[in-house]
Amino acid sequence: MKKTKVLMILLCAGLLLFVLFYKPLYKIGTGSFDLEDEHYQSYIRDYPELAERLDWPVHGIKISDTEDRRTMVLEAEKLWIEIYGEDTVEERPYRVLYDEKYGVYMIHGTLPLFYGGGTAYMLIEDGTGEIIAIWHEK
């Protein structure tokens, strides 16, 4: 009886830890975003000069497959890690949103509830895989 009780407590504790700390790679956003919003347009305007000035390793790099969202997210994460460091994986799960009017994906990180700070963002043109902008909000 005592062994069963201990086993049940351990099982419940393990399940609780899994629920609290499991982070899937990404989740598909249910909404969309408006690429015409000035917030995004400012990043698009500033991106080429910023990437060159900071010598980011993204010149000429394209996301290889915008049809496969898992691959797209993994490639975005790889670039974020090169630019912002390993802590980027703490922003999982990433959200993937789409602007149908312009055919552009936005991938961005998420933060736990009540956690301060910002996340990485990337705008990717559908079909070509061209990176339109990368930034990190604070």
3D architecture notes:
The protein is α+β, with helices and mostly antiparallel strands and 138 residues long. It has a 5-stranded mixed beta sheet with strand order 1-2-3-4-5. The model has no long low-confidence stretch (mean pLDDT 84). It starts with a helix and ends with a strand. The longest helix has 20 residues. The chain is built from 3 helices and 5 strands, in the order H-E-H-H-E-E-E-E.
Write the layout of secondary structure elements.
Layout: H1 2-21, E1 26-28, H2 38-53, H3 69-84, E2 94-99, E3 104-108, E4 120-125, E5 131-136
Parallel strand pairs: 1-2
Antiparallel strand pairs: 2-3, 3-4, 4-5
**What strand order characterises the main sheet?**
1-2-3-4-5
The DSSP helix count reads 3
| Number of E strands | 5
Structural class: alpha+beta
The rough form would be described as: elongated
- Beta-strand content: 15-25%
Largest sheet: 5 strands, mixed
| Weakly predicted, low-confidence segments | none
Mean pLDDT: 84
Give the N-terminus to C-terminus distance in angstroms: 52 Å
As a whole number of angstroms, the C-alpha radius of gyration is 19 Å
- What order do the helices and strands follow? HEHHEEEE
